[in-house]
Amino acid sequence: MTGPLDLAAESLIHGLVTAVTIEVLIRRVPIDAPGDRFPYRVLTLVLPLVLPLVFLWLTPWRASDAFADVALLSIDRWWPIRLGPVPLHVLALSTLGAIGIWLLAHDLWSGARHWWHDRHAARHHRQRTDVPAEVTSAIAQLASHGGIAPPPVVLLDGSAAVLHCRGLRDPRVYMSSLVIDRLPADELAGALAHEVSHVAHHDVARIWGLTVLRVLQWFNPVAQLVARQALQELEWRADADAARATGRPGALARALLSCVRGRDTEFLGLLGKGRVAALERRCRRLLAGIPARARLGRAADLVAVGAAISVLLFFVV
Question: How many structural domains does the chain have?
């Protein structure tokens, strides 16, 4: 197996086996905290992208018929199977590739709308220099709690509700005066703590990294779904950090609920009614209690898990 189609098929199977293995690990250990789960989601995306090329380079003999006879899920076994006039592997890869493209295109379009909304708000709403003292004080206190320097706050004037973290190299918190007027003090503190958590963990860079991994695996629907879950867990982790920093998870939940009940889908940087269900789930997680961090995302843990899965994939596919 040396052609692009062979590598794509192997990557698809690697992705499926890796995703199932890590999902079982997460649920059986269990690993409950989103901050601990995120590195494993990234590992799920990286291994299927890297291992087929590594195996081809280091062990070209895996492409032989002798190895195909002992490999449990050898792709060579699919090649002779036909569904009418169409080879089964062509039909399967085409179908999975179409699903992967649709998932990626859907999320890229949603992200582009989000980005355009942010750019429009920043360009067409007057920036104010009179950031309220309670906002700067809260940001400074929350940043100190997170062990970072206070991020700059960009205050926008206008009718749009804006509150998000933006900037790859120099993250800033963008917010509109409408948000300050709308939220009580405790809810505003929770929402600000959420954004400060994004800054502390360099989540803008993480989101861009996930996007690159998704584009490189445009043909793999498993990778698209895992990346979606990873993005969701970034939000859950920021919620958990905000709840710990403020000691009031209910306040952040109320801020989110005000968005859901009013169907103000642009609030907190979220667009589309499809996000309402995700907001409701975040609220339920906040009210149910914040999972304790198990610290199972250390480099040594990831290397051990990655090595074990690599050995499994070497002999299975």
Answer: 1
